[in-house]
Write a structure and sequence with these properties.
- Strands 5-4-7-8-1-2-3-6 form an 8-stranded antiparallel sheet, with no helix packed on it.
- Strand 7 and strand 8 form a beta hairpin.
- The chain has about 150 residues and is an alpha+beta fold.
Length: about 150
Amino acid sequence: MKNLIFASLSAVMLAGTLVPFATAKETAPLVVDASQSLVAQAPVIASGGFVTVDQDHATTGTARIVEENGQRYIEFDAAFDTARGPDVQVVLYTGDTVPVSIAEEDYTVVADLESFEGAQRYALPASVDLDAYGAIAIWCAEFNVTFGYANLG
């Protein structure tokens, strides 16, 4: 009789702990899936992994250009990280690879870098002809030094 009561109590306790867990487990993926599908809806125009240019601190992560509701954006993923410095900018560069120092006629400034690490997004002006550029670069304007770039090919 004791074993029967113990088994019944164990089953009730186990069932009570499984119900909230199953409810939480069913709810969590819906939130994650919803946000992931929003990101997946933006068509990717171009993307590439960052390459470090002559720096002790590596530039890592992935850059991509997406279009959403007629607006194009440059996006860096959460793995983005780059060297620190003053007056660091996101630029579009005409070549597929970006040298340490760049000439004024070879790039277009998109924006000041928002953060040296993590996911971020920059709106591209409608007037930018993406066919004229082969890479996205992280560039220190003050010293004319490229920290890293992502080839868009």
